[in-house]
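Chain and backbone:
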Amino acid sequence: FKNGRAWVTTGREYLLITSTGQILRRMTFQSIQEWGDAGYLFQAASGKAGLLSRDGEILLPADFSEIQQPSPDLAVVTVNHPRKKSDGEIEDFWDHGVIDKTGRMIVSPGAYLGLEALKNEGPLFSEGLAPVWNNSASGAARQVYDPCAGFIDTTGTLVIPEQFYRTRPFREGLAPVLTKIPREGGLSPEAGEWGYIDNTGKMIIAAQFSAASPFDRDRAWVCKRGGRWDAAEWAMIDRTGRVLTDFAYRPPEDKNGWLVPKEERITRSRWRGNLAIINRGDFLNGLASAEGKVLVEPVWNRIGEFHDDAAVAVDTRGRDERGNVTFVTALITGSGEILVRDKYTTICDFRDGTAWATQRRSQGNGPYKNPGWGLINNRGKEITGLDFIRPSWGWWSDESYLDPSVPAFSGKLAPVAQAHDYRYESEYPWFENSWGYIDRTGKIIAWHEAVR
């Protein structure tokens, strides 16, 4: 039961009942599930989706191919229907509409196109507006090369008229728009020039780019005029359109060519502390200031988040004489200074000014001399020797890594064992191994010496 309602089944029927056993609704479904707080999403015997209220009243009949969960107060509905192409061939086509959290239709399916691009990419409406366009061969009188894209508000009203060729979501008060198509052959990021407008439709940054991404922290990534959006021909700009870097990079959030990532991914992809990620492709990440000055060249496979003013960077492009991957690991400070480059194979994230570091390979002891882990501070200075591993009975914590040998703090202490002579297969590990507890200053708090 939830809020006094529950579903039960008898044969093929679903029954909505109250906590007193009163039957509110009988229906035959393929499935039923919660839909926000307003009611239930059901899939009818036909396979199409509809909505029911908490009392079993039909909010939307089962006319839709898909109804998404509300995010946060609005949801996309989809209707699938066949349409005839210009060559006479029949193809599947999807129209999208918008409903509110009560199931009330805000935008009827087919009124606009463009909503499908937002279904899985963060909130449906951004800053109160959603990009739409209408060049459907089945519904629009306009030609596909006419300006037919704008923005609607949460009531479905077209508040920024259809004066563009494509529109993308607002972020930080600006939205990318495609303003012209210099050649025929279809609508694509390569085919037009992109600029940025404010929420009144006023052009703030003139259309001059082959592609454009959303703003984050007053910075955006744009592709140079005539450039390829899938090549390293992007630069970072500010809110005035001033170009801050060379057109020599990829958008940091660009994964497999998808330029409008989920909202929560943008900041994480673009920034490390106050520094901007610069990217030239897979395994080529560096750091620049917010003004575009390159501080760390883009040679790193990955650059971690800053903890205690230190980020761990790893380069795995190299190979040793046997063809095995070599790990070049370094610390980078918040000012872009590189520390202890290639001294350790692995450095864990910092906490309270310390981190575990090792020269061993993950899951193994070679090829470096020292097989253990030790504590270092956020300037790369060793606090202990690389003498420790996690004992087999040691606890796990939120400081867990792929290599199970790394010790882990739980509170102020970490259980550690002597790395050089630890016996993993011991029948009596408590007696036959040297182990104890260490604090973050490197001080041994308690120690048990192995009995041989």
